[in-house]
Write a structure and sequence with these properties.
CATH architecture of the largest domain in chain A: 2-Layer Sandwich
Shape of chain A: elongated
CATH class of the largest domain in chain A: Alpha Beta
Order of helices and strands of chain A: HHHEEHHHHEEEEHHHEHHEEEH
Radius of gyration of chain A: 26 Å
CATH superfamily of the largest domain in chain A: GAF domain
Oligomer: homodimer
Strand content of chain A: 15-25%
Helix content of chain A: 40-55%
Structural class of chain A: alpha+beta
Distance between the termini of chain A: 30 Å
Largest interface: A-B, 34 and 34 residues
Number of helices of chain A: 13
Chain lengths: 372, 372
Amino acid sequence: MVTDELDDRKKRILKAVIDDYIENREPVGSRTISKRSDMSFSPATIRNEMADLEEMGYLTQPHTSAGRIPSEKGYRYYVDQLLDLKERIGFEPTAEELSDVKLRVQREIGEMSDRIRVASELVSRLTDYTSIAISGSADGSLRIKALQIVPVEPGKALAVIVLEGDSVKNSVIQLDKSIGPETLMKISAQCSMLFAGHRVEEISLNMIESVSEASGVPRALVMPVVDGIFDCIRKAESPGVHTEGAARFLAHPEFSDVEKAKGILELLNREDLMADLITECSGSDGLVIRIGSENKIEGLNECSVVTATYSVNGVKLGTIGVLGPTRMDYPRVVAALEYVRRRLTGENELAAPPELPQITEMSEVKDGRGNS
Amino acid sequence: MVTDELDDRKKRILKAVIDDYIENREPVGSRTISKRSDMSFSPATIRNEMADLEEMGYLTQPHTSAGRIPSEKGYRYYVDQLLDLKERIGFEPTAEELSDVKLRVQREIGEMSDRIRVASELVSRLTDYTSIAISGSADGSLRIKALQIVPVEPGKALAVIVLEGDSVKNSVIQLDKSIGPETLMKISAQCSMLFAGHRVEEISLNMIESVSEASGVPRALVMPVVDGIFDCIRKAESPGVHTEGAARFLAHPEFSDVEKAKGILELLNREDLMADLITECSGSDGLVIRIGSENKIEGLNECSVVTATYSVNGVKLGTIGVLGPTRMDYPRVVAALEYVRRRLTGENELAAPPELPQITEMSEVKDGRGNS
DNA sequence: GTTAGCACTCGGCGTCGAAGAGTGCTAACA
DNA sequence: TGTTAGCACTCTTCGACGCCGAGTGCTAAC
């Protein structure tokens, strides 16, 4: 991991180019790099190095007489090897940046899914990119903590289940008017006994028999109730997708073309695609970065995705992703997600020295200091 | 209402101009109007009439040598007097337009708020404009149909309330670990007796005393539970706002300026503003049209809003609004909302001849036939 | 009251050329 | 051998210019 094909000077130049490009979104020329205070070579030297970097595939040129811009390979090397996460890992949002959201995250004691949604809003604001939150796990690995049937009116009841992470699902049940509240209570108690404590994926339809037998209520009457419970379970299995700050996409000049912007916004509305996009990355527990065409969704080739998955006691409770242009401020995004991770998992940000997220093992570049 | 300042020819010309402008979004000239099959005057005559209409404030000219475009006054006259709603009122979406959504609306037996949301999606697709759905009424006029406290785990419970329209609100409660399920049941039963059947607005905090007394549980222990119920009620009072098809805004050329589009999208994300916007119009039970600056939100001056409010047995359950450019296809939007109204309120669209929505009393223009 | 004709206005669009930024190459230098 | 100054070349950006067409208002004739 330490030995790679770039010598120290090339690394510094590559990092300088990418930093500059991320900031200004303009092809960066040799002169610009040369003028940086930490760069003591003439434009001509830089030019030679940049030509090399282009040949190696880290940089490209939009046209002959323009500066260089990073290629996907360049970005990948940047986030893997050059990104000085320590630059930003101590990142603490200002009071202004947090505004009321901080309080809401802290004081929120409700469902985990709510907290993740609120956190996603925070991330979007901190980074100025679009953020996508997924709560619950797509596989049915969450356990059911509680289950109850609530009588509403004759012929109508409500099935309620509470899952790990305190997320709540409910479903309105239409049933025979002859079923009284007492019968419902009996069924409810039976279902609760049978289902509570089990994982969502373990529940199967033939449990209807057991409920019917144990409660002494005819199968036909129990049916709609179990149906309602299954409806809840279906809802629990389809992860909640929440998109925050879609409008921020329009702020970035790479999407000033309305057609492009429209395409992106339409994709953002496709909950299924977004769920896939984010879930695909959530295998590991840490941060994952997908650059440009590394993510499989067509139309997102000019975008990067950074995701962070949050688990408590080994149970995945949600994932927050940031979606932005390939030319995104990776350090800031990583820092924001890391900050939020500490909040969500209850770690005090002042306690232990924060672990570096797994995406990267730092090479020994020491002098990469962020500009601005 | 029959006598107004425009003679028949002026009306026809005005309608023709607006119809054409709605379709092509280009200033329409006298020649264009003159060429229409139902218009038997020379361009010069039309020009004179158009000059009159401009003087009266119904039309404007972007610049000296361009055609005319409708002013807000012109649109207002159009929707009030010229719109031949019968053109479209028999509107029935094609199978393709409905796709799977129709089925979902029909078969949906769950919460009213879900059905309104789904209907809103349908409206957005049918019209190709952005649609905003509000479920529940902003005032607390809905009654509580059922209420229950569900024990989740030691120290944690869930408050659930079901409102008219079957919308469900819940809130996780943190409570003293010493409270067992039986105590909770007692409190739950008491709360249910006290609150069920009442309007949300009637519930007040001092009911905590009654609950405490009647259940024989100390005030301090009852407190968090009642708090949870109040949390539900708070949620019930703030109407659920759901925006659908925001990306469709970008399809309309008047928003091809990214700055404008961004402004609009940001407004769309402001749930409070959208709630106001839609609620403001929902006084009456029928359709309401707000043109351009008639709606008070700054930044929506170039937009129009059409809303339809849905009530069952006199209880307002939700409102669906369509937000689009001032130059919107009013007949289509009105027809789509009307179609959905019939669906949501359970009317069979083939039964009674559909009532015309209240917005308009037709003037006796008979020959206005839509083009294309 | 309606229409044909005509001069006039004004935005849209393509062309052209200057300006500027950046490159690659060569030759000189340490 | 690595670095740097100089220079010719390339390519985009941007404003100026001018033509074209659509549409108007006015006048005069029907």
